[in-house]
Amino acid sequence: MTLASTIINPPIKAILSTILKVDDSEVMRIPMQGPLILATNHINSLDAPVGFSYLHPRPVTAFVKVETWNNFLMKWLFNAWEAIPIKRGEVDFEAFRLADEALKQKKIIIVAPEGTRSYHGRLNKGYPGIVMLAIRSGVPILPVVFFGNENMKIKLAKRIHMTIKVGEPFKIDTKGAAFSKEVRTQVTDEIMYEIAALLPEKNRGVYGDLSLNKREYLNFSK
């Protein structure tokens, strides 16, 4: 954690509290350090400041689209948070290298398998980058979700109720299966169903039928 993030997180949280009423009662269930991958949904621009400030003082980082660094203010902010720039639409080996280093430093990495904001708050299809990171590093995954901030445009006149929910940690165990495209897709879907299970039914999107979660490759043993 940088000195800059230690300085900016408390005032950012205070500012957010003027527009948000955040139920963060489950944040205490997130370990104070890694190595750990947080698998989350991605709704809008409130996710990042809420995640970094409400998880403070945990050593948190996250994958953030590389285009964010084109904006001077965003560049300064995400550098303070030690975020990892990632090129979307391709396998970004440098981003994964930085993620491996962060995990070795016992950091917590926030990963949104959807890859981009939904805005409407309903889950879109997940991508398998999180699977490759988890298998390479061998660290556990903890599903954590945000919801309520999809109402940002609706409730401009009053504080928005936003909730953070935390699931149960697990590791990926492919049980010797070849790491094929089909296996990567299934593991990704299993992770997304764990995310969906924490959300209200109306926010589960393409993962609305929780009975389809096979949990074939997820190991919940402590």
Structure report:
With 222 residues, the protein is an alpha/beta fold. It has one domain: Glycerol-3-phosphate (1)-acyltransferase (3-Layer(aba) Sandwich), CATH 3.40.1130. Helices cover 31% and strands 18% of the residues. It is built from six helices and nine strands. It has helices at 3-16, 47-54, 72-80, 93-104, 129-137, 181-197; strands at residues 20-23, 36-39, 60-65, 84-86, 108-111, 141-147, 160-166, 171-172, 218-219. The strands form two sheets. It has a seven-stranded mixed beta sheet with strand order 1-7-6-2-5-3-4, with helices on one face. A two-stranded antiparallel ribbon has the order 8-9. Helix 3 links the parallel strand 3 (60-65) and strand 4. Helix 1 (3-16) crosses helix 2 (47-54). The chain is globular. The two termini are 27 Å apart. 37% of the residues are buried.
What are the main properties of this structure?
two-stranded antiparallel sheet, 31% helix, 222 residues, 18% strand, 7-stranded mixed sheet, alpha/beta, Glycerol-3-phosphate (1)-acyltransferase
List the helices and strands and how they pair.
Layout: H1 3-16, E1 20-23, E2 36-39, H2 47-54, E3 60-65, H3 72-80, E4 84-86, H4 93-104, E5 108-111, H5 129-137, E6 141-147, E7 160-166, E8 171-172, H6 181-197, E9 218-219
Parallel strand pairs: 1-7, 2-5, 2-6, 3-4, 3-5
Antiparallel strand pairs: 6-7, 8-9
Helix pairs in contact: 1-2
